[in-house]
């Protein structure tokens, strides 16, 4: 059973706001929600993380409703350089109690001129 | 260094050859992860170290894959008798935290392995 579900791909245009929603119906009480961004030929890069309500940083905002069964990554005014794959991760605990990072297929965002 | 460093960036191996991939994590980071990423797919977990202890190797696909981190810093992923299906990008990540809770992991650029 997949831990997270997100759209396979999205298209947008420069200057628009992009919202990528991730479903995580089986999220556990202690789980954080983390988003990573990956450009071609690079490793994933941490974007934002949250537990509940709203988190904002210089790159993005993360909206988490009260039931925490979904989350939305919001990228304001995207540019061509935001074209990448975006991964939504929900905490998974590995042997020994560490926070195991499990990636799904991600959402391929294409930003057009 | 400023970030996670992996070497080599590219490796071409003949089928049956052994390879060793190196990861230099950020200094002081307790946790170290290895991932395998096939073309067009998300990274697949291979193994996890907490300092020098390999706490989780559940993702290693076969006994041809072996990882070590003897002094709790540099790690090496070794693949013996490489097969064509081993062709992928191998990513290393490190993080300061070890326990439960949110984790910000820092990834290297990866090593692209091609088995011919």
Structural features:
heterodimer; A: 113 residues; mainly beta; Immunoglobulin-like; 4-stranded antiparallel beta sheet; 11 strands; 0% helix; globular; B: 116 residues; 7-stranded mixed beta sheet
TL;DR of this structure?
The complex is a heterodimer of chains A (113) and B (116). Chain A is an all-beta fold and 113 residues long. Helices cover 0% and strands 48% of the residues of chain A.
What does this structure look like?
Chain A is mostly beta strands. Chain A contains no helices and eleven strands. Chain A has one domain: Immunoglobulin-like (Sandwich), CATH 2.60.40. Chain A has strands at 9-13, 18-23, 33-38, 45-50, 53-56, 61-64, 70-75, 84-90, 92-93, 99-100, 107-112. In chain A, a hairpin with a 4-residue loop joins β5 (53-56) and β6. Chain A is globular, with a radius of gyration of 14 Å. Chain B has a single domain (5-115), classed as Immunoglobulin-like (Sandwich), CATH 2.60.40. Chain B has strands at 5-7, 10-13, 19-24, 31-37, 44-50, 53-56, 65-68, 75-79, 88-95, 106-107, 111-115. In chain B, β5 and β6 (53-56) form a beta hairpin. The relative contact order of chain B is 0.33. The model of chain B has no long low-confidence stretch (mean pLDDT 93). Classes of the chains: A mainly beta (113), B mainly beta (116). Chains A and B meet through β4 and β10 of A and β4, β5, β6, β9 and β10 of B.
């Amino acid at each position: 059973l997949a831990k997270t579900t997100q759209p396979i791909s999205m298209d947008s245009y420069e200057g628009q706001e992009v919202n990528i929603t991730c479903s995580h119906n089986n999220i556990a009480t202690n789980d954080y929600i983390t988003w990573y961004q990956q450009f071609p030929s690079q490793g994933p890069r941490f974007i934002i993380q949250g537990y509940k309500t709203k988190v904002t940083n210089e790159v993005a905002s993360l909206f988490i409703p009260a039931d925490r069964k979904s989350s939305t990554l919001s990228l304001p005014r995207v540019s061509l350089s935001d074209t990448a794959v975006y991964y939504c991760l929900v905490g998974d605990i590995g042997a020994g109690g560490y926070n195991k990072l499990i990636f799904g297929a991600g959402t391929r965002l294409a930003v057009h001129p | 260094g400023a970030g996670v460093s992996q070497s080599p960036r590219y490796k071409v191996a003949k089928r049956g050859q052994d390879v060793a991939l190196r990861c230099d994590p950020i200094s002081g980071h307790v946790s170290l992860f290895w991932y395998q990423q096939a073309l067009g797919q998300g990274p697949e977990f291979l193994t996890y170290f907490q300092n020098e202890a390999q706490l989780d190797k559940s993702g290693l696909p076969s006994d041809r894959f072996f990882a070590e981190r003897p002094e709790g810093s540099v790690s090496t992923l070794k693949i013996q008798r490489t097969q064509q299906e081993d062709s992928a990008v191998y990513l290393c990540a490190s993080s300061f935290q070890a326990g439960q809770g949110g984790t910000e992991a820092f990834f290297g650029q990866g090593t692209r392995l091609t088995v011919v």
